[in-house]
């Protein structure tokens, strides 16, 4: 097997996917509007994780780093949404919040956000285990 298979120019680009997140947002013809989602690199994912760390007091009053999973999930979802543009100032202003992660949480009902988060995790490969991928390789 050639190492060239793994070169950047030979990697298949992840495509954006359209998904209906909520039937509360409708297009001009009255159909539920699709959101466009993209996968992110592990490099960006690491930045999102790092930005989501907080300090908590541990034993002896020492500050300990801890992942704020809710903040991380909001950042990840926001990073993966291509359309609507969650960074649009008018969109954020209409909901009275600032920031992409804040506006997506404000826009959606709890179940809608959970479904969107699940789809984001799926397109980023979090729904597949290494064992499943190994089985695919064996079967090809």
UniProtKB/TrEMBL annotation:
InterPro entries in alphabetical order: XkdN-like (IPR014986), XkdN-like_sf (IPR038559)
Q: Give the source's domain of life in one word.
A: Bacteria
Q: Which Gene3D superfamilies match?
A: 3.30.2220.30
What name has this protein been given in UniProt?
Answer: Phage portal protein
């Amino acid at each position: 097997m050639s190492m060239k298979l793994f070169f950047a120019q030979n990697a298949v680009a992840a495509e954006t996917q359209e998904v209906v997140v909520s039937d509360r947002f409708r297009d001009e013809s009255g159909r539920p509007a699709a959101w466009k989602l993209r996968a992110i690199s592990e490099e960006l994912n690491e930045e999102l994780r790092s930005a989501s760390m907080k300090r908590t007091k541990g034993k002896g009053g020492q500050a300990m780093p801890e992942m704020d999973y809710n903040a991380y999930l909001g950042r990840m979802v926001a990073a993966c949404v291509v359309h609507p543009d969650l960074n649009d100032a008018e969109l954020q202003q209409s909901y009275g919040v600032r920031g992409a992660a804040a506006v997506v949480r404000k826009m959606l009902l709890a179940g809608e956000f959970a479904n969107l988060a699940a789809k984001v995790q799926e397109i980023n490969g979090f729904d597949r285990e290494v064992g499943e991928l190994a089985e695919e390789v064996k079967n090809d």
